[in-house]
Amino acid sequence: MERLNAASIAEIDRIVAEHRNQPGPCIEILHEVQDSLGYIPFEAMEKIAVATDTSVAEVYGIVMFYSQFTTEPKGKHVINVCLGTACYVKGAQQLVDRVQNMTGAEVNGTSPDGIFSLDATRCLGACGLAPVGIIDGKVYGNALLDNSFMNAIRKLKRAEEKAR
Question: Is residue 36 part of a domain?
């Protein structure tokens, strides 16, 4: 398991201390840690358990139960492709394949360069726009037929290559 750097540990300590004496802050702390670090490392779960007087197993259970939490670092740009029924029927798997080929990120993984994460999600509630893709929170409907989704990824990729 990768160890955290001092800045990450200090940030976790700051967030935990801010909520230490509040009732039921576990989920709020988890959200803040993930917002700050991009994921929830095991060290954070240990500190949250102590601060909230719960077990590490209980904190870990919360992290595993809620799909918005992740225990793995995400890439700089997060791409979601809906694989719900309507999206899947309208070609979402082809969309996933194209994103994988373009970015090098595996499904529910991050590209080797750390730039892109690709997450397969379940229904996003936009079935009329199927298939749906999301890039850094921006929703793209009809993503298989409309080139704007893949063009946005190409644009991000070019910008990241220039920045190197």
Answer: yes
> Does residue 72 belong to any structural domain of this protein?
no
How buried is 64 (Cβ within 10 angstroms: 0-12 exposed, 13-18 middle, 19+ buried)?
Answer: exposed
Q: At 3, phi and psi to the nearest 5?
A: -90, 150
| Region at 104 (left for phi over 0; alpha for psi -120 to 50; beta for the rest) | left
Which of helix, strand or coil describes residue 67?
coil
Residue 91: give the domain boundaries. Answer: 77-163
The span from the CA of 27 to the CA of 68, in Å, is 11
The predicted-structure confidence for 60-106, as pLDDT tens digits, reads as follows 999 998 877 889 888 999 999 999 999 999 999 999 999 999 999 99
pTM: 0.73
30 within some domain: yes
- Rg over alpha carbons for the chain, rounded to the nearest Å, is 18
Per this entry, what is the length of the chain? 164
